[in-house]
Specification:
2 helices, elongated, two-stranded antiparallel ribbon
Length: about 60
Amino acid sequence: MIEYSSISIKLPLKTSVWKDIKESVWATFPQMQQLVTDYEMDDNPIIINIQTLLEGLVTKTVYVY
């Protein structure tokens, strides 16, 4: 990540969780592919790992249908 140090402004990543008027709970987080594009980090394994981590955290903490 040293060569992409400017990405640190985007980290730590945030997750947003909210309840709508129908009482459904929703969660979202930034998609790493956009950071890959913005910072020209094609196929960087760290970014793929971050995406996998975020997906896993959200999947384990909320009901995904």
